[in-house]
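Handout, section 4.2: multi-component inputs.
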Amino acid sequence: AQKVTQAQTEISVVEKEDVTLDCVYETRDTTYYLFWYKQPPSGELVFLIRRNSFDEQNEISGRYSWNFQKSTSSFNFTITASQVVDSAVYFCALSPTSGGYNKLIFGAGTRLAVHP
Amino acid sequence: NAGVTQTPKFQVLKTGQSMTLQCAQDMNHNSMYWYRQDPGMGLRLIYYSASEGTTDKGEVPNGYNVSRLNKREFSLRLESAAPSQTSVYFCASSELVGYSNQPQHFGDGTRLSIL
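Output:
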């Protein structure tokens, strides 16, 4: 089975707190890709990051960082010093390379509310 | 840069009516997709078109048809709308580069209500 689990349905924090969004995936593919997307209240989906299964280096982009651990099938996303503009629904997605096309399997999403 | 453009943004239909959701991308991408987003369920793939001239079913194709009109345009049709098809519909596109799964770029969505 190929599946993405985002166990945290909603998270509420106060501005400047650090917050980690969890993502656990299942796949039998040896080559696959992982993505994070942000959906702000306006509704569009914004691509944040793509990681392939052979690259386990953590990534940092400004206040955002991603921790990929193949051993635990997790691809967690941390926001440092959160801001109100970070309030959104965040989706983790798995893209296996089997199946012959660029398939995206989404988790149910985590709604993050950052309060002033 | 427009990216992926969906029309309309909102629509209300009565049960049994038909309608077509339009999608166009200006990024010269080969692959296009239609998803639906329901509360608490993330996005689910309805149909996709890996390249111009091909279309295939995704996870939830029942009740829908698609047309890849040309490389830019990919439409989704509801032949006889049902209340269960009330959802937010997203179109996306991506480059096709072998098995190097490229990011999909999404339109702003169409909020569809069926009464």
